[in-house]
Amino acid sequence: MAYSTDEKRLIEHAKKAIIDYNAKRKTKGGIDTLYAFLMSDSGSIYDGACFETTISNANICAERHAIANMVLAETYKATIKHIVVADPVPKLQKNCTTPCGTCRHVIWTHGTKNTTVICIQYIQRKNSWEFPKMEKHTIKELYPYPFIKVEWD
């Protein structure tokens, strides 16, 4: 799979951030979690982490957290160029975790049909980290029939 220069920059940022964030989380008794990292059309990178509560409707996916950080910094006019979704796995899985339906819609809304979605698996070994699998999609591939609001007269 070929990756653009910007995609490679985002992937490298994601790998470093995953290691750093998980080191912080583990010192405070936390566990590995799903992360998202996006690059806006300005070239800025925004991070997000899954936020889980005891009420499932209050949970916030990492993708939407990263998108909210982009909107906070750049306004609603910002566009997602690339987004990485990184999921911890106990061992290599056949397929990477892709964004949920709600996140696909929000990525579609704040991206373009060519926004790339790069899904990564990560594993913490005893003294190292592995990133054994990556898959690249466009949001159009993952969300081929998006919800489009009907305009009434």
Please describe what this structure looks like.
There is one protein chain. The protein has 153 residues and is α+β, with helices and mostly antiparallel strands. The chain has helices at 5-27, 62-74, 101-110, 139-142, and strands at residues 35-40, 45-49, 80-88, 116-124, 129-138. Strands 2-1-3-4-5 form a 5-stranded mixed β-sheet.
Question: Alpha-carbon distance between the termini?
Answer: 46 Å
Radius of gyration: 16 Å
Work out the helix count.
4
The strand line-up of the biggest sheet is 2-1-3-4-5
Write the H/E string, N to C.
HEEHEHEEH
Helix coverage percent of residues? 25-40%
Mean residue pLDDT: 94
> How many E-type strands?
5
**Unreliable stretches covering 5 or more consecutive residues:** none
Shape: globular
